[in-house]
Structures are given as structure tokens and as C-alpha cells.
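Objective 1.3, modelling of assemblies. Example input:
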Amino acid sequence: MSLRPDLQLVADLVPDGSSVLDLGCGDGALLDELIRNRSCTGWGVELSDDGFYGCLARGVPVVQGDIDRGLEDVEVDEVDIVIISETIQALRRPELALMEIRRVAQRGVVSLPNFGHWRLRLELALRGRMPSSKELPNPWHSTPNIHLCTLSDFEALAGACGLRIVKRIELDERHGVASGLAKLRPNLFAAGAVYLLERP
Amino acid sequence: MTTESGAIGLVETQRAVLFDEASPLVLSSGRELSPVEVAYETYGTLSPERDNVVVICHALTGDANAAGHHGDTDRRGWWDNIIGPGRPVDTDRFFVVCPNLLGGCQGTTGPSSIDPRTGKAYGLRFPAITVRDLVTVHRKLLAHLGVERPLAVLGGSLGGMQALQWALDFPSEVQGAALVCSTARLTAQNIAFSAVAREAIMRDPDFNGGDFYGEEKGPALGLALARMTAHITYLSEEAMRQKFGRRRQDPAAPAANPDEPESDFDVDFEVESYLRHQGSTFLDRFDANTYLYFSRMMDRFDPFSEPEVFGHLKDLKTKFLLVSFDSDWRFDSNHSRDIQRQLARAGIPVSFREIESPWGHDSFLLEIPDYHRTVATFFDNLWRERQS
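Predicted structure (C-alpha cells):
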């Protein structure tokens, strides 16, 4: 089974043999790839029952828990890299998650959808209603994505949390690597991005 | 063995002498013990490769009859709901072995067994035992059954402590260890409750320094009190509220003790009658000295404090599952969280889930859907990885 293209991009940013903490790990597909094929160790944190059972069924180590409560029992520098994949927009306290990356690891990988994408901007401008897309399909009142932001917003928050952006990979609307305009003006033309962050 | 729908049928407890004078059991204290006989039961079929063995480790007051029945279908094994065809520990797949623990009183050698040197029961002359010694005997039982290593070890409470010790001491032997509401270290409060139970037994006027076997009276009062105190810690406040509330005993019911005149302090509330019942039925099946040995052994269990354990951790191949219950206050979720932290920090694959349940520590014996599905999923993965 092949990984979703954006998860593949995330996996490629994790050096082989790393110890990994995947926050909001879903059904564990990414960790499965990292542990099975890239000799990584580590575990995931997942709130949903479905995700938890999915991990357990694959044999991926998982702790059921709420990232918004912080990771107080994970020690300083305990892992090499923290992953937050398509999860940060669903957290109540995204800044806490970024601060925790900085505390427990040297590096972090964060992927997120871009609310500044031109199609969403246009929809808001023309229809005057909260936009929806393939990544953000739910109406405003029932979406789990309560902290939507643009790529520029995210970069500002990462900086404020003391994380340096080592690399940014712009995504197209099919979760693949974007090209052309999206590289030139990502905040307007990328559907999302994967960031490699580092504690300076 | 006959199979009913999803349940194991009639089973028999078997016995084996695993250590004798020629090859005694060497305890972790260095002392030797022989003979050592073990009572155990098995369910399911051993695979030709002998690689489908699941060892069930019982808790403080359990026995070898984990599943199935001995003739009375209403009296089923203490973990019957989790072991059986199509159940989380699926006997269509696994060969399940459940021994009574060393030091126990349900068929395995313990303080109530005859000391061959004196011809009398050991009593308190039985050597001190550790969780490590329990594992030594479990492994010897597997060897006796022609099994080199278990696929998995599963236990609740003290049972989980054995699973943990086994995995830590033999880092490449156990593929999966599942610990339910267990602990790697008792807290001061846990030890305090152990102390009250022991005091109740030892201060009983009929305790007689542990030599009460064959006497007219034993420390029945003390043992019943120990059981009553412990039982309070096995249930949550909410469980007791739901089970008994403040309901009174039926006033027309006969007095609990017909020999004594009625007083205002006889059993009045239902919870009192329940505890008294728990205390008195316990006497028929449990030995006061075993209670002392097991509770002391649990107090002293602290495997992560041993310096050599960290050498073992780097070679540890076991996958762990930890389950706790949110209303358990005997071994609350922090005990499991602590084990998760110790193992994950060493890079060992460990999964952990706290299950919602109002029933306290005793939840591990109940059929709670999220709990059973979690155990089933873990065992299903072990089964599939074994096949691949």
C-alpha cells in the first residue's frame, strides 16, 4: 500500500533511524512506513477511537490522548523529530503544539492546508460564505478545523515560537508537490505546505 | 473439551511437578525450594510449530481456572469473557496456558503445602518470593509443555507485573505483553492498604505465627477483614453508588450471625452485607499466608529501579499494550502511564489507552466493549505478525 503523496513528502524529511513522535497520527500509516521501512522508532498520539484501533491493527505504537493538554510527560529532547501532519488546524492551542516541538525535539515536520489559497479567497469574496474545499469539506459550524490559517500566518507563528523554517514544500490540490505559480507566490497559489522546522 | 457458542466448555486443572530435590527451584533470594508442583489449565490447541502460546498470569486471588468450567456451567473461570473461540484471546488461534502462581493456594506449591523436611505445612517458613520467581516457574511450565517461548503474556494487576518482569528479564523471548490496570511500582497508598490487610491477618488471635493448618480455627476473621478492605479498593465510589446506593438490608431477612443477639451495629446497609459476603466466601478458597506472601511481593516489585534493566531495555523486542481504567484508584492510569514513559523513552514499542469505565480496578474482569476490542486488536496483530 503506498502512502498518500503528502505523507510521503513528510516521510522523506525524516532521516532514517530517527526517533519520532507523531502527534495526531491517525491510523498510523506514516509511522508504519517510518518504522517498517526506515528503521525509525517512536510512537503516535491519537485522540480518535478509529485512529487508535487503526494503529493497533498495524502494530504501530500509539497512545490515546489529547495533544491540546500538552506533552508534559515527554522529556526535553526525548525524540529526534516531532511530526504534526494535517492536524495543527484542528488543535485548540496550535502555539502550544509548536512550543512542545521545540521542547522535546531538535526538529519538527508540520503539514497544513493553506486558507490563503486563491480559490478559497475567491469563494469568500464572491459568495460571502465560509469557503470549502476537498481538504476542508465541512461547514464552519461542524468542522474539526477550528484554527485555519494561511501559510504566511503559520510562518509568523512558527517564528514567534522560536522555530526556524529549514524547508518548505508547496502542495497542489491533489496533495502532490506544486510547481509554477505556487512556488512563486505560495500563500496565494499553494493548496498547502509541508514545513521542516528546526530549533535554532 | 466441548465448545459452546463462543465459550470454552468443561475443563480440568492439570498438575505437574516442575522442580524436585535433584533439580530444585532456585529463587531470586538464592534459596532453594523443592518439590514445586504447579496447577494449570490449557485451552485451544498447540500449533505444530509451538508458536501460538499465550500465557495468562493471574492476579492476587486468581487461580488456574481462567476460562471454561469444572462441571457447573454457572461457575465459569475468572476471565472466561476474554478467552474462548472468537473472543479477544481467541482459542481458535492461540494455545492458552494459565498456571496458579508459585506461593499460591489453589494447587501450586505455597505456604500451605507440606514441607518435606518437616512433614508439616510450611507456614511462614516458606521462603520469600518475588515476581521474578513466578516468571521462573511459568517458563519452566512452558518447557515442560515443550514450548520454548510464549507468543504473548497477558495479565491484569499482579498478572501484568509478571508479564512486565518476563519481558524485561528475557528481552527476546516474548513477542507481545499486555498489561491491564497494572503497575511497575506500588505507591505509598497501595502499600498502606497492603499493610492493613497483613495486620488484620497477623493480629488475628488464631493466626498462631502462621501455623494454623490442621487447627480447629485459623485467622478467618483477619483474612475476611483483609479481603473486605482490599475489595473496597477494587471498586470505585461510583461503582458502589450504582451497585448499592444507600439501600438497606431487608429487615425481615435472618440475622447475618444467628448466634449473636441483634445489635444496632449489625449489618444494616446492603454494601455491608456485600462486603461481609465477600469476606466469608473468600475463606473457603484462600490461604491467609499466601495473602501475606503475595501482598509483600507486590509491595517490593520495582523492576525499573534495577540498574541492569536498562541493559536489557536496549535489546527488548517485545511489543507492549497497556490498558487502564479511568475510575481505577487502586492502580490508576498514572501507573500505566509511568510504564509507557519508561518503555517509550527506551525506544520500545508500547501502546497505551485509558478506558472509560465506572467499575474501578475490577473493570479488568468485565466485558467492556472498548477494552475487549483493544485487547482483541492487539492480539490480532500479534497473530498476523507471527504468520508473516
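The first helix of chain B runs from residue 131 to 144.
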